[in-house]
Amino acid sequence: MSRTAETVWKNCLLFIKDNITDQAYITWFQPIKAVRLEKGILSIQVPSKFFYEWLEEHYVKLLKISLTKELGKNAKLVYIIKMENTYGKKQPFTEKIPSSQREKVSSQEVDVPIRNKDPKLKNPFVIPGIRNLKIDSQLNHSYSFDNFLEGESNRLARSAGKAVANKPGGTSFNPLLIFGGVGLGKTHLVHAIGVEIKDKHPHKTVLYITAEKFSQQYQEAIRKNNRNDFIHFYQIIDILIVDDIQMLSGKPGTQDVFFHIFNHLHQNGKQVILTSDKSPVDMQDIEQRLLSRFKWGLSAKLDVPDYETRLKIIHNKLYRDGVEIPEDVIEYVGKNIKTNIRELEGAIISLIAHSSFNKEEITLESAKAIVENYVRNTKKEVSIDYIQKVVSDYFQMDVKTLQSKTRKRHIVQARQLAMFFSKKLTKASLASIGAQIGQRDHATVLHACKTVNNLASTDKKFKQYVVDLEKQLSI
Ligand code: ADP
Ligand code: MG
Does residue 437 surpass a pLDDT of 80? Predict the structure, then answer.
């Protein structure tokens, strides 16, 4: 039976496919062409030098085993690098291997005749600002799923994250967008996903980057005239995690380049994971075409944790730090610090620090002093609940009335004032304000803000409401 390069390579591929992930197979083996088979030497064509280096580094053993199975122990493999033509060359061409080099191919090793012919060829991993990405995903290994405690507030986001970690690029959660206010665990969760992917799929290239750094790198690439390298670099990532994408707002150039990278990754079944402090609906100064991409996958919100979850988080933190605190103190902290998890952790840390510094037991009394101080110092932002309460009291109605669907003028005005001050005094999004003030949508809140501004400048009595309320709300 006469065997051709193609049939031999086909059998090798069957074996390889069984031994690696689908993604790796698609990325690294499907693009290879078997070119010829001569005297036990199989020549394969790979798309770039980078490609060959990657195969050598990660799959040389697998290649050797599969080829030996097919051609016996004297089998040899030769790579032919199809030259990249991104540097101004006209036509891609296939490099001919001089026969003198071909003979040097060792019989023991799967060997490669072409090595570093052009030492100036850029290693796509070397991008200013990030080095050694081959190994370094920029992940923080202290953030894991184990210490990301589950609660009602994060259940969807957490389980979507788990699903993505199991099958990056293989779920409909692509992109996965995690959004929510500060200190609610966005960064923690996306690191946990990245760390778990690295664990389960060690061959995958994972990269964590903040949108801000991404943007800086891009500016630098533009300055140094290597926008293409920048794009190529990001296009070879299997799992790209971009934190705080709201930072891309108002940066059309960076958005544009991100759009192209995103499309490339998405089309090739790579996973994109994003975080933002706002839902896609509320993102401002982000191009529509990019926003619509964000909606392709799943947007999962992180909410403020409820009391139960806050207690779980405190217990876990104390346990990990090996510190014991009386239960009544824990409950006191859990009840009083509700803004976000970062502040919860901050309060616990200062409690521990205080007691070890003063060599005192932590008692409810000492905790009260610290927590009060803590809450006063950090709580510059009033809550939407509080605003609704103050406005309702001012107009002598209860909060339910303020939130009701009625169109009575004075109630509508009270509601609009509550929305106006929520926008002004909190970081909450229009949508989230609307949701909390009687289930209205973001357009209603926007309209309310405009109306209040208009009335305040035309109606004296109304202006007085605004001035009074402003005083009461500024603590
Ligand atoms: P964000 O990126 O949303 O501002 P972070 O991810 O930085 O918030 O989280 C703030 C702090 O809260 C971190 O120390 C993080 O470990 C902790 N944290 C957040 N969510 C959880 C959780 N579900 N369980 C335990 N710790 C959490
Ligand atoms: Mg963060």
Answer: yes
